[in-house]
Amino acid sequence: FQILEIIIFCILLYFYKRKAVKHIVVLLMMVALLGSLTVIAVKAVASMITLSVQGKMQLTYPVFYIMIVLMTTSCVFQVKFLNQAMHLYEATAVVPINFVFFTTSAIISGVIFYREFQSAALLNVFMFLFGCLLSFLGVFVIARNKKEEHLQIPFIDCGHVPGQKMMGKIQPDSHSSCYGTLNNEDD
User: Which residues cross the membrane (predicted)?
Assistant: First the structure.
């Protein structure tokens, strides 16, 4: 499964870097795949530390340090791609899609890599998946139909300041040629 994840990630990275496909799904699928690697590495590191504390020293094995490097690297690149998605798209689109992709990839990787549902009853597995579906549905309901609010007035009206005489507009007219610049009083 990890090899399949790596192959899919490399294909997405190729399209992202070489073909300049900067679609939100491509970016967030890379984030989700890196997230699943992070989840696997964190669980491995935590298990090895727990075993070491219990007296079965695991910190001398090189796989512990490989997992720490994998965990750190995948976290850093996950944040890098997520930041790029946030710069290209609005947070109202990125956050829900990232939540669904990350959660799904983390569940699938945990189920396959650690065989988490192997001894679980069918009803428990169904209820878990039903809970995930309800969570995703909730994210969809909250995130849909978000409309941007636009100010009708191009400047902020601070109102009347007690004891001060109002001299004019707080900000210049947005349709004038000097909007956003300071006026030189000498001219």
Answer: 24-51, 63-82, 94-114, 120-143
